[in-house]
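To: structure desk
From: M.T.
Subject: fold request, one chain
Message: Could you run this one when you get a chance? Sequence is below, nothing fancy, just the single chain.
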Amino acid sequence: MISFEDRGSVVVLVYQAEQSGADWLDNKLNAKGEAMLFRTFKVRKENLVATDPQGVVDDDTRTFEIGTIEEGYRVVKKDVLGLKHDLLLADTLRLRRKIFTAERNISVFNRIDDLIDEQIVVGGPRPGAIPTEEFTRLLHDFPTSTELNKYTRARITRVLREYMGTMSDAEQSLADYMKRRASSDVRSLPDAHGRMLEAHELELEKFTYIQNRLVEMLDNVEPYSEEDWQAAVANLFLLVFPQYVAVLQHVKVKECYSKPSKFTVRDIDLMLVGANGCVDIIEIKKPFTRSLVSKSKYRDNHIPVRELSGSLMQAEKYLFYLSKAGREGEKDITKRHGSNLPAGLEVRIANPKAIILSGRDNALTDEERFDFEFARRAYSNVLDIMSYDDLLRRLDNIIASLKSRTGSRVRSSKLR
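Reply: Done. Structure tokens follow.
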């Protein structure tokens, strides 16, 4: 087991062998000069110190200096955890192994360091520091062994389904309904009212499928790569919003504003094409628990988190570049993506707007929800910020309306 202590101005890691003794560690240190503990801590022979301040030596205990205490922070050396920068932890944070190591000996800070290029700071007054309560929540949400096993199974199932015809519950439900529809003779309906009822039932099945499929995906986000998630959600989006007839991926647009001396090619991930050829931009982000507004306040406000504010800036720039592309830009997009457009339809750039689909709002407090709505309305002239729960609520309303017109003869969708 390991523990941590503050000794004057230094921070030490105390390793206590449980059954096999500390000989294996000594052998590693003597042979290589360093050793790994729990796949997280790299300890070196030159950092070995006395077991306790009195110099008492314990055959089963080894103590290593891993950092210092400076200006209200414990500074853990970057080479101890294999990070790009020294780690700063507020001195009010009680050091425990679980802060550093998740299940299956996964290094928490190493995983965070892989995703960013700046110093990790937890707690305290430093700008950009992760609030202690947010970091505690992150540790709580870190995948457990059970979740990792489920992720692995779900990822394998997703891959196999592409090749072996395995269907999800939502897909199977729709397939069963279409078989029932095929076995009945729709043409035998006696009048227009009957045909209208059949049309409503088909629409109800379609939107019930979309809802169930979206709920399945939201319950199991991790197996999807960012690009796979975008493609899957975009296809469902076209079914919910029939004014769009196509979604184009990786649309190239030239611009000469960011670097005036030369043209730069921008890659727009997803572009929606309306029935009249007019285009809009859509940004689809994988939903994370805290990806709309901050938990902590800035000047008494819950502000958009960095991911959302970055998406807003990116979308506004894309709209600017797209609007400046002109007739040549329309022709170029039509030529490059003609195979994905209905025959004869040409792309038109006429005051495009952007849609950002990101995050969940079902766990927001009333105050956080108000600030999110305030931020959303601030951009409403050019941007529509939509959460996944917004989309689900829209589906709920559509389904409720269709059920009232069909007499609720179609099975209800899954609870979520």
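Reply (cont.): The chain has a mean pLDDT of 82. Let me know if you need anything else for the meeting.
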